[in-house]
Amino acid sequence: MLFVFSFLLLNNCVEDNLAPPFTGQLNPAAEMLVYFESQGDFVNSNLAPALIDAQEVNSNLTNYLIVDLRSNSDFQTGHIEGAVNILNDSLYNFMKNIDAGSYPKIILVSRNGQSSAYFTCLLRLAGYKNVYSMKYGMASWNHFFSDEWLGALSDAVNIASYTNDDFPRNNLTDLPQVVFENPGASLPERINSRIKKIITEGFYYSNNLPSENISYIVCYGKMRLYYARRFVTFEGRGHPPGAISYLDSPDFELRSGKYLQSLPTDKPICVYDYDGQQSACMTAYLRVLGYDASSLLFGANQLFYSRMIDEPDLREYAFSSLKINNFPFVTGE
Amino acid sequence: MKRLLKIFFALLLITFSGCENEELLTPQFDYEEYIVVQAEIQANRYFPAVRFTKTLPLGVPYRIEDAELKNVTAYLKRNGVQIIPLLYTSQGLYKTLDDLFVVEGEIYELFAMRDETFIYSITRIPYKPEITNAYYNSSTYSINASVNAKEGEVYAAMWIVTTTPAVKADDYYAVSSADPGTNLIVATSPLPQQYRGGNYSGLRYIQVNSFDQSFEAYFNSRTSGSEITDPFVQGGGEIIWNVQGEKTIGLFIGVSRGTPQMVF
């Protein structure tokens, strides 16, 4: 009997509620999505990719801060008067150390407007709302700098294999696995630290469109970019085999609520658009989220330029000497 | 024998008194803040907002400006894969950026973090109730419906009388569940005396709604004698919530509303 009561005594005094506190962590990539969308979802908005014409820059040389991202040798060969030469590996700290809000606009300039669009979007994601990329880069400032852009205008050697067939998006999968370097910091600090790292790593681009077997090829634009109309050059040959359409404005199909997660996390992604600038911006966003993305330089201008100039809907995106100005530049430091 | 009995009663006394909780002797009236999560996700509608608020001390008038939480990081996971951020709008309401159409059978998980508190819930959107028969039970004065039970779903019903204006039961009478594929009788609360007559025949309806199964534990614990009139505001009692998190209460529940069935 004593034994029974001892047992009862010892057992009755044990607290019923021994369950450990409920704990868990949010998914870092999901947290970034929440943050970017709460900040206006810049990349998936009509504000992106925040391009600005050379004409506007030329009219505001004394008002705008012009940040030239090219190599020091390119800068010395010729640059916009008043521009500062900042390489990407010091760009984030440069922005941190200036009073960015004191400038009406901060203009990033690169050789062809490709990397500047990339870094502009990264800075926008980091909260700098007055940063813009000069459209077509120095190539549109003066003919002196335009050889590379003009040399890129071409039709793909395999254009005969292009098609108007639809290629389906993948099924939705998990977001990429992202590890923050400073997990104890606030969410904006964690994200900005990641953006700084990505800016320092440099612009991710592809010179040529990779094979569909190697990469998941994203055609980012409107229907008219994906499908070639009838009675135009390359009729019925709208896109490379395997390219998958993701619509931009107003559908923004790479938004979280749409098809963002149909992008693969186990395969490189190559994004092409009309001229490489919007795709550079989207690439920046995807890399922040953890995707292995790159932007096709010059976009459709290097894939089917003949169709670009033949099709009225695409013509505005076709680079040509008409888009090159004759603005003055200076040499040396 | 007497000595044994003395020992027995002494031990009995120790057993029943030794573990008394001191809190019962000196009741604590300290206010403990709870996070409150509310969302009723209806099938075949756009996803509503998820509301994040906090409880307020007793005696403090409830104002949404005081109760709302603005600093919650929250997102949904749809069907175990798709992440959809929830963004603060106003009055503690967090919404998706784009309209999100909710489909029967989908599974929604809620992930949220407020300061250091991790919050989680999961619900499945039930199918529209499949009613095979509905009738007025003149002995219990309730309206009953026979429903084809489905996996993971529970059912509750309300009566409606389509007078001008129409009147409706204040609450569900019971939450019922059964094995999938079997027929289940779902009953409303008894109709008020004045609507039991034959002149209301044809004006009486039953509306059966299906819920995620976690609603049953909530409903039964809510109605088990607590004096709490609005648990989302007062936050007390022994209610079984389906939102998990330290000092967090709430319901994040999938619902599918049935079509009202006329009975005679």
Description:
The complex is a heterodimer of chains A (333) and B (264). Chain A has 333 residues and is an alpha/beta fold. Helices cover 31% and strands 11% of the residues of chain A. The longest helix of chain A is centred in the middle third of the chain and has 15 residues, at 187-201. Chain A starts with a helix and ends in an 18-residue tail after the last helix. Residues 1-17 of chain A have low confidence and may be disordered. Chain B has 264 residues and is mainly beta. Chain B contains 5 helices and 16 strands. In chain B, strands 1, 2, 3, 4, 5, 6, 7, 10, 11, 13, 14, 15 and 16 form a 13-stranded mixed beta sheet that branches. Chain B has a 3-stranded antiparallel beta sheet with strand order 8-9-12, with no helix packed on it. The N and C termini of chain B lie far apart (72 Å). Residues 10-27 of chain B have low confidence and may be disordered.
